[in-house]
Amino acid sequence: MARNAVQFQKGLSEAEFDRLYGTEELCRAVVIKLRWPDGFSCPVCGGTAHSIHTARGLFQCTRCRRQTSPTAGTIFAATKLPLRTWFRAIYHMTQSKQGISSIELGRRLGVRQTTAWMLKHKLQQAMMERDGRKRLKGRVEIDDAVLGGQRSGGKRGRGAPGKTPFVAAVETTEDGKPVRLKLRRVAGFTGQAISRFALHSLDPACNVVSDGLACFHRVADAGCAHEAIVTGGGAEAARHPVFRWVNTTLGNIKSAIVGTYRAISSKHAPRYLAEFEYRYNRRYDLASMIPRLGYAVIHAPPMPYRLLKLAEIHG
């Protein structure tokens, strides 16, 4: 049997990572190249002529005299950590299929868990910003799911206390090969929530296949064609071939969450889902994920720590 091309790809070794990103100078050069691929451009006046303030590492525009840091206005803004620490965090978050907890990330980076948590969530934020506006096209498998362990007593299943509901959708080719993934937390499995998801996440030309859950008919609000297949419940329904890829993906995500994080806060669930989504959508080239996430970080707005901790993210 042929090997799984994704599972057995080479990726980027630690030795190769050190060659490309192992020093502060190398990482700074990468940041500058990602921010100004065609050379420096002043964010105020657009001027390209400049000098470099060597001691402070700032670019000074010759025309308006504005001084600019390569990290200003990015996720890296005002960081006190070396850029090589950031890139090492990017390496661990992109090269691990199951993800990495902030505790383990802190051990590997040699920083406190709270610092690793901040790094991780800022990078997750950049992932979420990068993929947020992209829509799935063509044939799409969709299913409902929840995050959160079982509680004794009380309601079970959908709507149970302590659960975080989310929607998973997988774009496939006509012959059933998975292409891209969308994971979005929703307020609940209602027609209004699914309508909102479809309008933001699905191309109007999509052909959506779902189970018999009534709310999924609202994908039609986005102009999508919809086919509902009543599967019943239990393990047999989860193995239905029509939903092969969305069910496989959900199984992998839940296994990773249990194995890596055990549980995640509902408030921050969209970032964790965005991390799984980002890796899945770029799974065919692990090595390129580092510069691609670097680009996303450079072009994402700053996210102060207080907002990471306090802000409620709306799916």
TrEMBL record:
Q: Which Pfam families match?
A: DDE_Tnp_IS1595, Zn_ribbon_IS1595
InterPro entries associated with the record: Tnp_ISXO2-like (IPR024445), Transposase_Zn_ribbon (IPR024442)
The record lists the organism as Acidiphilium multivorum (strain DSM 11245 / JCM 8867 / NBRC 100883 / AIU 301)
Regions crossing the membrane:
none
Q: What is the lineage of its organism?
A: Bacteria, Pseudomonadati, Pseudomonadota, Alphaproteobacteria, Acetobacterales
Name the record gives this protein: Putative transposase for insertion sequence element
